[in-house]
Amino acid sequence: MAFYSLSKKHYGGGSWAAGVASLESFHFPMSGSQMGSFNNVIFGCSIEGSNDFGFKGSEISGIFGLGKSQVSMATQFASLIQSRFSYCFIPFTDAMPSQLILRFGEDIPQPPRLQSTLILQDFLRRRSKYGQTAQGVY
């Protein structure tokens, strides 16, 4: 760890999180028995926030950023994951915990007629957003 920093991050909709961040080293199993090491990754834990995301008394300790900001995990690991991630939404009303399918890079299956969503950069507000228009719920 190179440093610790207290920070406060504001999100869309007015929510915020305050916590501590540091530079960390991450080690991941790669193909075979090889390990991949990534140094100087910005990582942290929130101490308090303005939003419990609907889970009263929850112990949510942070947000795993997948946006375009310099500190998001998707940006920091962009070269490893080919700037690609995929996840499957679970019904919000399902009892927690529930499995969430989150995949990166070449681990993402390539079904026929694959559709994707671009991340849009809002340079004036220095934010990134992504979204999908729902066609229906099945």
UniProtKB/TrEMBL annotation:
Keywords: Hydrolase, Protease
Single Gene Ontology BP annotation: proteolysis
GO cellular component terms given for this protein: extracellular region
Xylanase inhibitor N-terminal domain location: 10-101
One GO MF term: peptidase activity
Keyword Ribonucleoprotein: no
InterPro entries in the cross-refs: Peptidase_aspartic_dom_sf (IPR021109), Plant_Aspart_Prot_A1 (IPR051708), TAXi_N (IPR032861)
Assigned protein family: Belongs to the peptidase A1 family.
PANTHER family: ASPARTIC PROTEINASE NEPENTHESIN-1-LIKE, OS07G0603500 PROTEIN-RELATED
Protein name from the UniProt record: Aspartic peptidase
Origin organism lineage: Eukaryota, Viridiplantae, Streptophyta, Embryophyta, Tracheophyta
